[in-house]
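Section 4.2 – Deliverable D4.2 (structural model, holo form)

The reporting period included a commitment to supply a predicted holo structure for the target in complex with uracil. Inputs used:
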Amino acid sequence: MGSDFQQLVQVARQVIDTDVLLGVEHFARGLDALPPVKVRKPAGKPPVGGANKRREYGPVTDKAKALDELRNKELRECACCGLNQTRKNLVFGEGDANAQLMIIGEAPGEDEDLTGRPFVGRAGKLLDQMISAMGLSRSQVYIANVLKCRPPDNRPPRPEEVAVCAPFLFRQIQIIQPKVILALGNPAVHTLLGKSGITRLRGQWHELPEHAEGIGGIPVMPTYHPSYVLRNYTTKTRGEVWQDLQAVMARLGIKKPG
Ligand code: URA
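Output (structure tokens):
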């Protein structure tokens, strides 16, 4: 009974967030009234095909522990690019270490720097709606950024900062071994794929190069960064993002509501 109700709430939330993405504004007002939904993960792995060869790479059995070690032993004291001197908090990334979907943004902003958590500001609210529109919750995905420290005044990451920080992101990907990566905006797409031009690249599947052992071939779906969507809040932009999210859902075997 309880779980039926939770499922109903989950579907309602998904429908509403999809409508928000597609521009049906009036639904959005009810959003905050809904209770947060805890979704129990089904036992075992869902039968999603593709990229199985990657799983042959020495599986990290305790992914959460491996991520903790990366954070606490290798990243915490990192002073490679100097951004550690101006940041308030390291923003390592968060979510399910066993997630099938990894979402990758650019760099922490002010809210993220203050809290030490990725995507908690305005862009984060929209990202939450995007995740929910896919029928998932934040706790079921893993969210990370290319840079782990905030560039002062939210300036774009410098190439030398990306060069020293990206290997940490590749290690996160190597540990998590997601089935799919959703890359948000040009800096993330460029770091992952070595290609630029989000308008041209989005909406199509790309393969991650072998930046680190065992991560080559992971499917990457580029889409617009939520901050860009907020600046260009048109039905067209939101519709394109929704198309990209639907492609991710199809790849993960997630059914659309309704
Ligand atoms: N933008 C990003 O790219 N990452 C965050 O964590 C927040 C905003």
